[in-house]
Amino acid sequence: MPDRVWWPVRGTDGLYRIYDRTQQPRAWLKAVYLPGIPLITQIDDGTVAPTGPADGAFTSSISSPSVVIELLRHLAPEPGQKTLEIGTGTGYTTALLTHRTGDTNVTTIEIDPRLAHHAQTRLHALGLHPHLITGDGEQGHPPNAPYDRILATASVRTIPPAWIDQLRPGGLLLVPLDSPFGHDLLLRLEADGHGQAHGRFIAPVEFMRTRAQRTPRSHVGLGWPPDASPDQWQYLHVTVGPAGQHIHHHASAP
After folding, report:
1. One domain for residues 100 and 159
2. 221 and 106 in one domain?
3. Residues 41 and 69 in one domain
4. What is the DSSP letter of 208?
């Protein structure tokens, strides 16, 4: 956890309060260990310095412990499995993945060079040495593919083809997908070995968008059925492959 983080809710002054470990050690520690609260580690792609209360768009955070636990529970990585993480951030989830699967089995990608450097410093201090790549996570990392597991800690509007291409048959992809319902949905896909992956949504979530997919787009154009209902998202089935992304009602839907 960085020494300075922003609280994700505006104060009465309209700004996001900052917690400074050196100035408010007890408050900082309490915020860090709250199970359900993410903390903001970057605003406006780093153009806002973490020196005090601020306003702007959240562009990086450290997910709350409860969310990280849920991500890893559904990803279910096993020791020795090759895992790709999209979005290193602070390195928190990376550390847990590396501890679980082993140093040489984790590849993690961070698009922001400063965040990547800080994460690598923290991970090395813990004796953890995953393959940390600075670059665009939507391209994956072909040199270490195929992967048994791929985890995205940033949401997308459409699944990048590289992620499907770099999954081994039977491999799992866990990713927050933008939905028409005002929030993301956590999607779990399994590669079929024939260039496609199939799966279902698991839970409503909120994640920051990848940089390349921040621009809003028509959900129908992204493969969503026009009659998709916010109270029946769990009955939607997703197929991703060379023909694109297709979301349709599952046969078991009421």
Report:
1. yes
2. yes
3. no
4. P
Q: Are residues 120 and 207 in the same domain?
A: yes
Residue that finishes a domain, picked among 12, 39, 62: 62
153, 67 contact by CB (below 8 A)? no
- Active-site residue 63, yes or no? yes
Rounded CA-CA distance 5/250 in Å is 42
Three-state DSSP class for 165?
helix
Of the residues 61, 63, 64, 155, which is catalytic?
63
Domain of 9? 4-62
Instruction: Specify the number of domains making up the chain.
Output: 2
Tens of pLDDT along the chain (254 residues) come to 899 999 999 999 999 999 999 999 999 999 999 988 999 999 999 999 999 999 999 999 998 889 999 999 999 999 999 999 999 999 999 999 999 999 899 999 999 999 999 999 999 999 999 999 999 999 999 999 999 999 999 999 999 999 999 999 999 999 999 999 999 999 999 999 999 999 999 999 999 999 999 999 999 999 999 999 999 999 999 999 999 999 998 755 44
Task: Give the separation between CA 183 and CA 178, rounded to whole angstroms.
Answer: 7
Cα separation, 245 vs 233, in Å, equals 16
Residue 81: give its domain's CATH number: 3.40.50.150
